[in-house]
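hey so i finaly got around to running the thing on ArsR family transcriptional regulator from Pseudomonas chlororaphis. pasting the sequence first so u can double check i didnt mess up the copy paste, my clipboard has been acting weird all day
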Amino acid sequence: MEAELHDLGVSQVAAAIAEPARTRMLCALMDGHARTSTELASIADVSASTASAHLAKLKDLALVRVHVQGRHRYYSLADKRVAQALEALMVIGQSAAPTFTPRTPDRLQFARTCYDHMAGTLAVRLHDRLLEAGWLVAAGQGYGLSESGEQIFAELGIDVQVLAAQRRRFACPCLDWSMRRPHLGGALGAALLQVAIKRKWVLQDLDSRALGLTASGRKEMAARFGVDVEQAVAPADAVASRLAPTVELR
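ok and heres what it spat out for the 3d tokens, dont ask me to read them lol
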């Protein structure tokens, strides 16, 4: 009986995620921000009533949660496991093709958030450069930092000792679903994204997980890390025109 209930639960969640509009809503929430049903309706390209029905289904299955502030209701992913499951499905969903050809929209393929860290072409290049320079070193199934690596991150105001003491993994490879290669995940990846946002190296999009690289960000990536992004730059201007306040839940 217990096994049957487990199977039923898996099939219900899979069916909920499989609906295209719900998938778009869930992916839009992977940046860790909460959004209204109106915003999510626009993202999913459905009517307000249809969006409400989809969100009610997702809430019933514990895939999203609702936060009420006055007259406003904001939706966010229930927890990080939902985001991790979505990322895994994105990788699996493209594995059927014998030859991999990225079909991700340009502005998402270049740079986006992967829950709380950076993904896309820019993040993969940064990951590769950190390894190539010897700043990031393999440590079991994750990564550690060399002495010079600790210095690089200390110069950004990132206390690696504090990050290492957290309950989550310090640093680890996270398979990028648009590139099929790893980018940097874990506490270190999350801290690096926050620095990039705070210093305005990247700008966040309103209605997707896209990140736009600014002129200063391009310079910093080259000067600090030696990352050449000239061949695949997604201008921040295109993202900046779409920016608007969002609610970040802590």
